[in-house]
Each structure stands twice: as structure tokens, then as C-alpha cells.
Amino acid sequence: MKTKLIFLLLVVFILGGCKNRQTENVDNGNGKKISEHYLNFDDELEQKSVVAVDTVEFRKIINRILPAKRIVELFGNGYQVFYMGLSIDVDGKITITLSPDASFWITGMGEIERMLFKENLEIAKNYAIIPGKDGDSKAVDIKDIFYTFDPNVQSAFKGSPGILNGKKVRSMKIFQIDATLDYLGGIVKPWTIKELDIAKLRPHIITGLGREYYLGFFPAVLREDFKFIGQSIGFPREAVARGVRGRVLIKLFYESDGEYAGYQLIKGLGYGCDEAVINTIEAFKPKSYASGQRSTVLVPFNFGPSDKTPVDISVKSFEVDPQNPHNKFKMVLVNKIKQSKVLKTKYTINVLLDGKLLFSDNIANLNWDSEKGVVYWFGGDKILPGEHSYEIIIDPENVLNDIDRSNNVVKGKIFIK
Questions:
Q1: Do 180 and 242 lie in a common domain?
Q2: Beta bridge partners of 160
Q3: C-alpha span between 243 and 190 (Å, rounded)
Q4: Distance between CA atoms of 269 and 222, rounded to whole angstroms?
Q5: Per-residue pLDDT in tens (0 to 9) along the chain, 417 residues
Q6: Would residue 399 count as lying in a domain?
Q7: For residue 300, which of 101, 130, 86 has the smallest C-alpha distance?
Q8: Alpha-carbon distance 31 to 34, whole Å?
Q9: pTM
Q10: Which strand (E) or helix (H) includes residue 70?
Q11: Is residue 342 domain-shared with residue 226, that is, in the same domain?
Q12: Last residue of a domain, one of 303, 331, 346
């Protein structure tokens, strides 16, 4: 009987705390109801929660929870980014939970997106699906590091809960944590931690409807729209300096006629990459195929170097060629790294003149003399004399393993007599 009573109380607590989160409604004076929840994010509070982080102790805790060799086993080496949910009880006690994606806490506790975490790794529920060398795959349990509450973190975090309706309430913050690892499991760049604005992670749907109204799935964004977005996203210098690599995963929402309805950031990379993708999507509002129902699609945007053969493409020269009146401009690209084998990778080169696309090669290759480079002539004979602004963009979709992307975008002025 005692066991049954304990079980019943536990069920009541879970249902009362998680499913029926709303406990009280108070008008904030603007006609908006403020509701107290089981966990309350800062943008729901009258007074935000406060957390101070001891970086030294934080790194000790993360090295315990996320051993470097375990990360390399599951996710590979290089730049790695994860998310930490930090809950603050009314008495100030702090508990943390880790997740590979930011949507874990936003879409509902325990609801994990099925996503292609990187090119050769899929996350599905509590497992990492890792392809084997012979083409088969294996599912590796990741519950030992993710989705588990860890209360033994008081040495690294000190905090106080937020205030709602005049009283302390259990509060929630989300942090991005990232580090760079070598293939042996050594830490090349130590763990950093940064609090995220929760508004960045919520669904942004222009119709005002909730994400639950967009349950249909349709294959893809219009190909040309997706391609244009990929070509328009720059690689932030801060991300280049940090050595960022990986995917920003964005969920796009669409109306039944294929019109853009909004987005939600599912997994970011930080260091300006998330904003670069979001700003481009918001500016362009890509369309989908009309599906007859409100739908959603998860779209990856790649940043940083890959495991492919390293290259270093740059603009050697860009000038007016007086010997070629029909194609006024001459551009020479070079690869500073000498290639020892034929590379099959195709990439894109775009040249804009006065903000408009003047030249594009969507199937550019790398199989040319690395010292002499490759020469392009273009421009036509309709370009007016005078000074013009130009922008040369090499590999905007980040398909190459370019070791120095700082010279992949070149801007300047050019004069035509």
C-alpha cells in the first residue's frame, strides 16, 4: 500500500509540474497574462534570475560529465558545441542538464528533434546513430551524458531565482558550451560557456500560430531559394578565429501554399553563425513547394572546414582587361596549397558589381595549376564607364576545406574608362 501511495504521489507531481504547468494568471498591466510554470524562463519573469559562473570549476565539471575521449568517440574531433540547461530552485540550489540541441527545453522536456547532427552522425531520441566502415550503422546510447539531471554543480554556479507575481519561482537559463578537441581526445581550445537569450531559441512564426499548427512534413525548400540563401551567408570573422565548424540547424515553417511562415533555431554554432543564418532567412523568406497543409522542414547550413583535402583559394588579381572589350573584367584565382591529387569537389564563385550579380560559376573546380591559377573573363560590353563597387565571393556554401576563409570575400572599387 505504501509503495502504491508513493507511486501515485509521483504521478501527481509529474502531471502537475510538467503537463499542467500553469498555476496562476495575473495581468501585467498590458493585457498580457503572466503564468507561473514548473520552470520559468527569463522572458516570462518580472525580475530575471541571476547566475554567476566560476569558469575553472565549470571546466572541471564538464570534463567529468563530458569526457573528451567520449565526445571524440561519438562526435569526432574539432569544434564541438552543446547546450546546458540550468535550473534554479527557489532556495538557490542549481541543477544542470546537457543536450546536443537547444530545442530540448523549448519544445517540451524529453522531446528531442531527430536531426543530422553532422555529415556522418544522426541524433535520434536517446541514441547517436553512427555509420560503420562497412556501410552499416550502430546506435550508441547517449543518456549517460545527455538529458540527465546533475545536482553536483554547486561549486561552479551560484545563483538566485527570478521573481514572478511578487514571489520567487523555479527558474531556467540555457547556456551554449563549446570546445575544440584533437583526434586523441585532447582539448585544443578549452570549454567556454555563454548564456543564450531565450528569445533566440523560441519559434518565430509571423502568423502568430503555435508550432503545433505546423505538423506536416514536405521534402524541401525551393531549391533555388535554398541555394541563394547558402550563397548569401557570410562566415563571421569571430567564428573563423574560434575555428568553428559544423551545422546550424533551422526549422522552417510554411503555409499550405508554400509561403514562408517563420523559423526556429534548433542547433546553433555561436560566434555569429546563428545570426548570419537567421538574418539571411528573415531577409529573404524562402518559399517551399505548395503541399496543401501547414508544414515544417529542418534545414542544415554548414560552416567551417571539413575532412576533405585542404585548400586555400584566394583572389590573385581582379582588373579591367583593355584587350578584351566584350568581357571587360579579368579575374585570377590561385590555390596557395599545391594539390597532389585530382579533386572532384565543385563549388561556387559569385561576383557582384554595384550590389548586383554580374558573374556566377556554380560548378567551379580545383584542378588547375596552383601557381598560375585559373583565369576568368566576364562582364559584357554594357557596363557603363566610371567607378564601380565589386564583391567577389568564393565558396559561399562552405563545401571546400579552405584553411583560410578570411580571403574568400574580397571587396573593392574598380574604374572603367
A1: no
A2: 50
A3: 12
A4: 25
A5: 434 333 333 333 333 333 334 444 444 334 445 677 788 999 999 999 999 999 999 999 999 988 998 888 888 888 999 999 999 999 999 999 998 888 778 865 444 455 556 555 667 667 777 665 555 667 777 777 787 788 889 999 999 999 999 999 999 999 999 999 988 888 999 999 999 999 999 999 999 998 888 876 654 566 566 666 777 788 888 998 888 888 888 888 989 888 999 999 988 999 999 999 999 999 888 887 777 788 887 787 888 655 567 788 999 999 999 888 788 899 999 998 887 777 777 888 989 999 888 999 988 988 888 778 899 999 887 888 999 999 998 887 666 777 776 778 888 999 998
A6: yes
A7: 101
A8: 10
A9: 0.64
A10: helix 68-75
A11: no
A12: 303
Phi, psi (degrees; rounded to nearest 5) at 241: -65, -35
CA atoms of 95 and 58, how far apart (whole Å): 13
Angstrom distance (rounded) from CA 134 to CA 110: 32
Look up the CATH number of the domain holding residue 264.
3.30.2420
Residue 212 counted as domain residue = yes
Residue that terminates a domain, selected from 157, 178, 200: 200
| Residues 85 and 104 sit within 8 Å (Cβ to Cβ) | yes
Residue at 325 is within a domain: yes
Instruction: Give dist(CA 184, CA 195) in Å, integer.
Output: 29
Residue 388 contacts residue 358 (beta carbons within 8 Å): no
> Which residue range(s) make up the domain with 359?
310-416
Do 138 and 222 lie in one domain? The reply is no
In a domain, 8, yes or no: no
Residues in the chain: 417
How many domains are there within the chain?
3
**Comparing C-alpha atoms, which of 347, 349, 373, 369 is closest to residue 359?**
349
d(CA 149, CA 112): 16
Distance, CA of 90 to CA of 287 (rounded, Å)? 45
Contact 71, 186 (CB under 8 A): no
User: 276: closest CA among 233, 245, 213?
Assistant: 233
Query: Does residue 83 contact residue 175 with C-beta atoms inside 8 Å?
Result: yes
Is residue 316 located within the same domain as residue 351?
A: yes
Q: Helix %, strand %, coil % for the chain, to 5?
A: 20, 40, 40
| 296 shares a domain with 318 | no
Q: Where are the alpha helices (DSSP H) in 164-236?
A: 223-232
